């Protein structure tokens, strides 16, 4: 095909409101593919975007166009042929900068192509001075319509040849008069030829203008037909792009599903960790409660131990006092036993004596 995409990106497409000329009207519900196309047969660059089978952008790049960045992710350009302003919203500033660079690059290429075509047009419409004496092939040039200079110059020579030079025997007056008539005739001939050339030039200029008008009409018709063909070709290429984008979306969905699965596994793991943490917290609270109970019991036991120590000390003091009293009683008892023994002995003696 003569026209092929050379750069593509994705963006949201907008057009200026034709009524207010201020508000943006979205022409696509979601981001679509926006492509630069190059027509090698006509040396033309175009921006084309399709939403399904509908062409929402079909803009031919001209040297007068300017792409303006209005924000970090939005740019616009005016198309005088379509009588509208297009706007593109990108997903990142990098995509916007890349699109703007390509726009400037292809705009410069379009300018160079236009200059070359104008040079070719001038060469085909205006004959060269060096080839003025030759037979030109263009049917619209002055020479091809009214004849070349070489074809017209014989008229001068034919008019001048019958005028023979005066003989040497003629009188000076008659010789001067003949020369004057000769130059007057030459001047009249030249004026006639000049008038013929002027008329031929005017006629050829009118023919060239008519030819240019017809050529412009043919070019417009050819461009319209070529746009239609390009739209049909773009539908086919866009279908491939949609298929590729669908494959990319399926791959992205698969990656997202895997990522979602990993996230769900991580969530389950975090839930288990949270449950374990809750169990540990409950165990900690239970152990804390038990520790408080043990501390209370320890305090009670300490109080009981202190009481027992006091009671033990009191018992020990009582036992010591009891021992002392018992010892005293034993000593008294020993004295009493000794006295009784002495008494028994005395009684025994008395019995013996009696």
TrEMBL record:
Compartments where found:
Cell projection, Dendritic spine; Cytoplasm; Postsynaptic density
Entry keyword Phosphoprotein: yes
GO MF assignments:
G protein-coupled glutamate receptor binding
The record's keywords, sorted A to Z, are: Acetylation, Cell projection, Coiled coil, Cytoplasm, Phosphoprotein, Synapse
Q: Where is the composition biased (Polar residues)?
A: 138-147, 155-173
Q: Does the keyword Phosphoprotein feature in the UniProt annotation?
A: yes
> What GO biological process, any one, is recorded here?
G protein-coupled glutamate receptor signaling pathway
All copies of domain WH1, residue ranges: 1-110
**Disordered: region residues:** 114-173
Q: Which residues form a coiled coil?
A: 201-332
Checking Pfam families in the record gives: WH1 (PF00568)
Provide GO CC annotations from the record: cytosol; dendritic spine; postsynaptic density
* PROSITE patterns attached to this UniProt entry: WH1 (PS50229)
Q: What InterPro entries does the record point to?
A: Homer, Homer_EVH1, PH-like_dom_sf, WH1/EVH1_dom
Q: What is its main location?
A: other
Q: To which protein family does this belong?
A: Belongs to the Homer family.
**Name of the protein this chain belongs to:** Homer protein homolog 1
Q: Which organism is it from?
A: Cebus imitator
Q: Which gene encodes it?
A: HOMER1
């Amino acid at each position: 095909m003569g026209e092929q995409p050379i750069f593509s990106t994705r963006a949201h497409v907008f057009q200026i409101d034709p009524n207010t000329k201020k508000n943006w009207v979205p022409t696509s519900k979601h981001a679509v593919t926006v492509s630069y196309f190059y027509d090698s047969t006509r040396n033309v660059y175009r921006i084309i975007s399709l939403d399904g089978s509908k062409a929402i952008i079909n803009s031919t790049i001209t040297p007068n166009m300017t792409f303006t960045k209005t924000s970090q992710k939005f740019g616009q350009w005016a198309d005088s042929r379509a009588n509208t302003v297009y706007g593109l919203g990108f997903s990142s500033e990098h995509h916007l900068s890349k699109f703007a660079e390509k726009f400037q690059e292809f705009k410069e290429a379009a300018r160079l192509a236009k200059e070359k075509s104008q040079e070719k047009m001038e060469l085909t419409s205006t004959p060269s001075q060096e080839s003025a004496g030759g037979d030109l092939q263009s049917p619209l040039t002055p020479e091809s319509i009214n004849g070349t200079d070489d074809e017209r110059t014989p008229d001068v020579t034919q008019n001048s040849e019958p005028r023979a030079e005066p003989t040497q025997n003629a009188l000076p007056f008659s010789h001067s008069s003949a020369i004057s008539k000769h130059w007057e005739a030459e001047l009249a001939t030249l004026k006639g030829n000049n008038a013929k050339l002027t008329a031929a030039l005017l006629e050829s200029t009118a023919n060239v203008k008519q030819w240019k008008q017809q050529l412009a009409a043919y070019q417009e018709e050819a461009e319209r037909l070529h746009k239609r063909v390009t739209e049909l070709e773009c539908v086919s290429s866009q279908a491939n792009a949609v298929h590729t984008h669908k494959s990319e979306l399926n791959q992205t969905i698969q990656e997202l599903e895997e990522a979602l699965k990993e996230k769900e596994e991580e969530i389950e793991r975090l839930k288990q960790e949270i449950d374990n943490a809750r169990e540990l917290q409950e165990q900690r609270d239970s152990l804390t409660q038990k520790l408080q109970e043990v501390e209370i019991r320890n305090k009670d036991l300490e109080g009981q131990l202190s009481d027992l120590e006091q009671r033990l000390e009191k018992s020990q003091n009582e036992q010591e006092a009891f021992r002392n009293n018992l010892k005293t009683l034993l000593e008294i008892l020993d004295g009493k036993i000794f006295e009784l023994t002495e008494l028994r002995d005395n009684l025994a003696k008395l019995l013996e004596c009696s």
